[in-house]
Amino acid sequence: MDFRPSPPQQLLISTAREYLRRHCPIEPDRRAGLDVVKLWRGMAELGWPGLLIPGEHGGSDGTLQDVILLVEELGYAAVPGPYVASAVAATSLALAANPAQRERMLPALASGDRITTVALGDAGARRAHAASAPGALNVSGGRLNGRALFVNHADIAADVIVVLADTVVIVPADRRGVTRAPLDTMGGDPVFEVAFDDVDVRDDEPLAVGDGAVAAAVRAGALARTAEMVGGAQRILEMTVEHAKTRVQGGRPIGGHQAIQHACADLVRDVDCARGLLHVAAWREAGGEDARADVAMAKAYAGDACLNVARRAHQIFGAISYCAEHPLHMIHKRILAASMDFGDATAHLEDVARAIGLEA
Amino acid sequence: MDFAFSADEQAFAAEVRQFLREHPPSAFPVDGMDAGYGSGANSKAYILALADRGWIRMCWPRAFGGGERPMFFKLVLLEELARAGAPFGPLPGIWQTADAIIEYGSETLRRDVLPAIARGEASFWQGYSEPDAGSDLLALKTEARRDGDHYVLRGHKIWSSHAGIATHGLVFTRTSREARRSRGFSMFVVPNGTPGMDIRPITSLTGEVYHYEVFIDDVRVPEGWRLGPEGEGFVALLNGLDSDRFWGRFYKAPALERVLGHLVEYANTTRVDGMPLARDAGLRRRIAAMATELSALRWLFYRAACQIRDGVPITYETAVAKVMADETGQKVARLGMDLLGAWGLLREGSREAKLGGEISHSYLTSLGHTIAGGTAEVLRTTVATRGLGLPAAR
Which class does domain B125-232 fall in? Predict the structure, then answer.
């Protein structure tokens, strides 16, 4: 048993920390002009979108564990962009497709040239699987109809992978009949309603993946979103402790008061516990074991714990954290969004309930 | 990152499970109450059975009769025993005392006490707290005065767990007044029954005896029974407390998983208005969330375990784990009460009691856990100051 990342993983982490410190500032005013696509290209040059993809397809031969450690850093820096949608969820589905489809999709996913997002269907935000909303999306006679909510980065995506109850199809985002309407979220992240109106689905566009592959991609997405929450909570913890050490009131740092100290101690517990469950779940999933319960626990726990961290941090920071120019609310909103994606805590706790033998 | 047990550890776990089949916990007489920490009741017979397998000394150096097995074997043993509900109460304290004797004990202690420990015949109570020295341990007043090749101990200890049924006390005393508040303390191993020692039971809120208070009235202890150098007992104590947080709570997660398993079974088999409790959405979610928390707790302890194994300095990791263990335990008991309703009040042995009355017992015992071995407040301060570097509170 060993909790430490391997030396190559440590290098990945430190490279990401340094690169993102320079190219993705956390302060909202410095971030105003951030070009998401330019940042994505920079990440692609470092080989990050291809981490899950074998070298023969242009990828960088990483593992899901590597991805999780990297996404923790993306969360730490509150990086905007399509990494989880394209490099994790869509890539997981592409990896499960047939050889011709892999040959076609993987190199462009690895190079970051074709950003691909995933539409889990109407219920995608709430449930881990689109199958619970039959009829919301359907393919019939080679035509795709219906609409999907909460599709991330549909604006810059070249392709959309649509997960339906009984099939998975990939269609170019600019095909006739596809419309993308932005939803106005509290975090300002690019989330869309994507409608499909009699969209032509060509012969090679249904992806030859089984049910297991969809579930595995959803688990990978859930783990990545969990990593994003853990990284964000780690950043909040560090910011908050720094504030508690330096903010002087009544002649001494507020961190010298037990009320603040004990709140900070609870932040540490929440972050450490969330990270522990995440790393164990990623290890089990990457090792090909049945990790369903571990993934569900990791995401449910982080969703609760990391939000507690964010909320408590607001209290410790006081009024300044209520300002738009302070970074805390931005990280907080990202954690909140991540907690809903690929199954919220309620959905994952139901999976846990079944796994521990509670009768359904 | 690798969270699997090694092949050796897995083989040992199988060996322990085989032992548990051959030595069903319920077959062993109990001498002292289960205080709910996860190590079960105090059973001398069970400790003898563990000693018989060589498991008490399995990690000691060969020079002391040990098997030099890696530290993780202890974790494997504790986890398997806790999952089975075995009554191994004093074992962690026995191990800690043996380790201290091996590390800095006198020849006398190594010759006279260590073999008894290996045979499973010795167990220890901690004489740390005093009526006016609880969270402020250094305010203690018990003194050890040098008299030739002996010390004469005088004072009053309290909250000493199972002191009346253990064989020796670990008595923390002041041996001199020094400018620095943390200097001048010494630890002694004192056999029960030494003239001048009066051990009196304190009935706990469960109605049973767990703690004792010990009146120490000119108790003469040979120099050789001092544990560690004179005046440096505080360092040893701190190491002991750090390790106490770990070894005193490591098995709580598996023990609570066992309790939660009982609650799952209860929820599946108990019907209210024709529907199993398991289908009550609120309870279902709380039970699932509790299972999740227990898993988080278990890994928190394994992280600390790896640090201890690898010699990585511990700053806050055992403190945060202990707080979480104790507060999670209280939540499990509270959840159990909600599931059982009025039946949760019924004690072991009562007519109509559910789950052997274990929820009523664990509800009560868990109240003491956030107090014993460092209160949750003291430990949160430790996390904040030692772990995060926040300034000491005035």
Answer: mainly beta
